[in-house]
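Take a minute with the sequence and fold tokens given here and flag any structure token that looks odd. Thanks in advance.
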Amino acid sequence: MATQTLKKMKKTLNLLLISSIILVTACGPSEEEKAAKEQARLDSIAAVEKAIQDSIAAAEAAAAAEQALKDSIAAANQKMLEDSLANLSGKLKGIQQKAKEQKAKEEKTKKEYEQQSKGKG
């Protein structure tokens, strides 16, 4: 009787073990679920890499815009300097012309005075 009970217990344990193996295998993720999970991981990596590339492109665009602004400011400053120099040059020529005219006027007045002085003397 002990051997019969032992045989029944072995059968029961074997049945229980096989059932447990089947149950564990059945409850695990299917190949589709594994593939979907792997694809989600790859998609996530791709999204991060794209975000990095977009960030780099945005930084490069910002640097180019900043350089363009600096170039524009430098060009404006150069133009302003050239305009100021041209303006000052024009004013200087005007002052020089007035000085020549004034000098000529003084020379004329001096000659007239000398002629008048000779005529009285």
Notes: DSSP finds two helices and no strands in the chain.
